């Protein structure tokens, strides 16, 4: 398993925002935090509510409603073996 780089390209290819576990209420709740973190530069922040395999688990998601990690191009690009990075420690 390779360490996932915190890049705009990986962020754009990421499936996290499409994941059924990442509910609309979580997206709305975390939007202000994400915007502030994006202004800092994604490579300079510890946690981001997206690209969980490169950052830490979600501050908002607390229930597994499905996982898209295994069909994500980032997951494939870095030969990741695990999934559910949004609710388990193990990313970055």
UniProtKB/TrEMBL annotation:
Superkingdom to which the source organism belongs: Bacteria
Protein name listed in UniProt: DUF2769 domain-containing protein
Organism (species): Candidatus Limenecus avicola
């Amino acid at each position: 398993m390779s360490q996932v780089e915190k890049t705009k390209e990986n962020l754009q290819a990421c499936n996290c925002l499409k994941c059924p576990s990442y509910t609309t209420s979580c997206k709305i709740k975390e939007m202000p935090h994400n915007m502030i973190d994006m202004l800092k530069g994604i490579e300079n922040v510890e946690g981001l509510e997206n690209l969980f395999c490169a950052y830490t688990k979600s501050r908002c998601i607390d229930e597994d409603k499905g996982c898209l990690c295994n069909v994500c191009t980032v997951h494939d690009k870095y030969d990741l073996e695990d999934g559910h990075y949004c609710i388990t420690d193990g990313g970055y």
